[in-house]
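Record type: monomer structure entry
Structure origin: computed from sequence
Chain ID: A
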Amino acid sequence: MASPNQPSSPEPSLRRTPDNPSPVLAARVVDAMADKRASDITVIDLREVSSMADFFVIGTGGSDLQVKAIANGIMDTVEDTCGETPWKREGMDHLQWVVLDYVDVVVHVFLPEKRAHYRIDRLWGEADSEQVPEHGDASDLDLLQALLQRSLDDA
């Protein structure tokens, strides 16, 4: 919950720019997760069902050390490739469920038992989603590839 000095939602100026549309950021996150060997990487397209974010990207780490490595890898990759840092981040102290909020793209990195317990994949069952194949990356996701191509065509 936001404190009186902290807004509950980001300023509109923090939303994606034409140079960094949300599908690009989601693809960078997926690739960073894959680089750190996250499992069960899933992208959920929330654009048609919620105004809270464009995408959730969800992945699982096998241990708290792997969850930390995945989260740090995402933050490093996104900063290096997109010049962005998370608007908010939660869970880095306990490393059971880390949330990296990039406003239009919200990243969840779970330990297996926490992911099974909260089942946020199922909470958004009406949204389009796609799972990255084992040993795959963002290039294997038809959903993101179609959006990335459309962004290039519009440019």
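Annotation 1: Confidence is low (pLDDT under 50) at residues 1-16.
Annotation 2: Strands lie at 39-45, 55-60, 88-90, 97-101, 105-110, 128-131.
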